[in-house]
C-alpha cells in the first residue's frame, strides 16, 4: 500500500526551520539530505557542477541528477506513491522546494528511529 508524502512540495510552513535552512543555504541542506539518506554528502554538488561542465561541451542538462536520484530513493524506501515522471517534473519545477520536502520527510520518518547495539553478556556459567 503506497503512502503519501507527509508534507506537500510547497509545505514550507509545516517546518519553518527546514524552510529557512533551504532558503539561506540550499547546497548545505541538499548535502544534509544526502547524508540522512545514507549517501555521500557531496552528491548534491553534482547538481551545482554538472550543468556548467556539460554546457561547456554543448550538452544541456535540465534535470538535476542528485535531486532526482535522492527523491526516487526516498520515495521507494518509504513506499511513497508517485512515478519517475512526477519526480522529474517536481525536481525541475522547484529544486529548492524538492530538497526542503525531502528534508521534512526524512525528519518525520527518522524521528522515532533508534539503533541499539547490544553485546551478549556472559552469565559466568559455561
Protein architecture, described:
With 126 residues, this protein is an all-alpha fold. Helices cover 56% and strands 0% of the residues. The protein has 6 helices and no strands. The chain has helices at 16-24, 26-36, 45-56, 65-77, 84-93, 95-110. Helix 1 packs across helix 6 (95-110), helix 2 (26-36) packs parallel to helix 6 (95-110) and helix 4 packs parallel to helix 6 (95-110). The protein is globular. The N and C termini lie far apart (49 Å). The model has no long low-confidence stretch (mean pLDDT 84).
**Number of DSSP helical runs:** 6
Multimeric organization: single chain
Secondary-structure class = mainly alpha
- Low-confidence blocks of residues: none
State the end-to-end distance. 49 Å
**Count of DSSP strands:** 0
Proportion in β-strands = under 5%
Task: Assign a percent range to the helix content.
Answer: 55-70%
Q: How is the main sheet built?
A: none
Q: From the alpha-carbon coordinates, what is the Rg to the nearest angstrom?
A: 18 Å
- Write down the overall mean pLDDT: 84
Order of helices and strands: HHHHHH
What shape does the CA trace take?
globular
Structural topology:
Layout (H helix, E strand, L loop, with lengths): L15 H9 L1 H11 L8 H12 L8 H13 L6 H10 L1 H16 L16
Helix pairs in contact: 1-2, 1-6, 2-6, 4-5, 4-6
Amino acid at each position: 500500500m503506497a503512502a503519501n508524502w507527509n508534507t506537500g512540495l510547497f509545505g514550507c510552513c509545516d517546518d519553518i526551520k527546514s524552510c529557512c535552512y533551504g532558503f539561506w543555504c540550499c547546497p548545505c541542506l541538499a548535502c544534509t539530505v544526502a547524508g540522512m539518506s545514507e549517501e555521500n554528502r557531496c552528491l548534491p554538488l553534482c547538481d551545482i557542477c554538472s550543468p556548467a561542465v556539460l554546457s561547456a561541451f554543448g550538452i544541456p542538462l535540465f534535470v538535476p541528477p542528485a535531486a532526482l536520484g535522492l527523491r526516487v530513493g526516498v520515495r521507494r524506501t518509504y513506499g511513497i506513491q508517485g512515478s519517475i515522471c512526477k519526480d522529474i517534473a517536481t525536481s525541475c519545477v522547484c529544486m529548492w522546494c524538492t530538497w526542503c520536502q525531502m528534508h521534512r520527510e526524512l525528519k518525520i520518518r527518522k524521528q522515532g528511529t533508534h539503533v541499539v547495539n547490544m553485546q551478549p553478556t556472559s552469565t559466568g556459567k559455561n
